[in-house]
Design a protein that fits this description.
- The chain is of the alpha/beta class and 278 residues long.
- It is 56% helix and 10% strand.
- Strand 3, helix 13 and strand 4 form a beta-alpha-beta unit.
- The chain starts with a helix and ends with a helix.
Length: 278
């Protein structure tokens, strides 16, 4: 590692800050690795480079190039940063993580029982992660921003739509004015135009980063409307547009992502908001 990088990237937080600072300057392949590594830090800590390359959808050489791009001598040196994060102050979490079956992502999709077990383990893993990593101060600020808003407009599509629709239902059920931007008739821009100056746009989007959702966040920010985001990591295209961001890194099983932690987070927002109303 170069002296400059060695001084800058000594731990996981410094690594994450370096990736955020270089957002937009990395190649498409290296950005793909960065997204995967930030979304799956525990896997990076315990898996081989070949397995990580397969999961990230890149050749192993790309991971080596990614490590050297950040100033590390190679993958092993980069991996040590993730291992220190896992085995440092969060040892109980690390111990629980190692108890999960190694077949979570390799579950036999022909066996419904193993598929079910895999999804349960993926959800448990995600809940352990969010319990340890969620910023409680940002959570409180998020709830306050929702409470202060005249109305909450919700943008969520594709895999995030179910959580967004439930959040709309939950907010409406506690008496908070809420609108679901569903893009009916391809009129999402017109639906967004209904936002008042005291309203907020709540955006939910994860590693597929639905373009329509990102566009809504960008349009709202350009119009001076407050954006709140629930997304997966600091490299998300909506993170820099939001006044407050909550990060949810959801474990995957094959091509499917566990929605359990995002649902738990949104339920906690709704219940906390109800308390403020009450």
């Amino acid at each position: 590692m170069s002296n400059e990088q060695a001084g800058a990237i000594r731990d996981y937080e410094a690594l994450r800050a370096a990736l955020v600072a270089r957002q937009g300057s990395l190649s498409r392949r290296l950005s793909q690795v960065a997204q995967y590594f930030l979304n799956n830090p525990e896997e990076v800590a315990i898996s081989t480079m070949v397995r990580l390359a397969d999961q990230a959808g890149v050749p192993p050489a790309t991971i080596t190039r990614f490590a050297k791009e950040l100033g590390f001598a190679g993958f092993a040196e980069l991996q040590s940063v993730f291992r220190e994060r896992l085995l440092g102050p969060r040892l109980p979490y690390a111990a629980r993580l190692t108890e999960r079956p190694a077949t979570v992502v390799d579950a036999d999709l022909e066996d419904p029982g193993r598929v079910f077990d895999g999804f349960v383990q993926a959800a448990v893993q995600s809940l352990f992660r969010i319990e340890q990593t969620l910023d409680r101060a940002e959570l409180e600020a998020f709830v306050t921003a929702l409470a202060d808003a005249g109305a909450v407009h919700i943008a969520a599509a594709r895999g995030a739509f179910g959580v967004g629709a439930y959040t709309f239902y939950g907010l409406a059920s506690i008496g908070k004015r809420a609108h679901l931007i569903d893009n009916l008739g391809a009129m999402r821009a017109e639906q967004l135009a209904a936002m008042g100056p005291e309203d907020v746009l709540l955006v939910l989007t994860f590693d597929d980063y639905t373009p329509e959702t990102v566009d809504l966040a960008r349009m709202a920010a350009e119009r001076g409307r407050k954006v709140l985001a629930i997304t997966d990591n600091e490299l998300s295209p909506v993170a820099g547009l939001a006044a407050h961001v909550l990060y949810v890194t959801e474990a995957r099983l094959g091509h499917f992502r566990s929605q359990v932690p995002a649902m738990v987070l949104c339920q906690s927002l709704i219940v906390s908001l109800r308390r403020q109303f009450g």
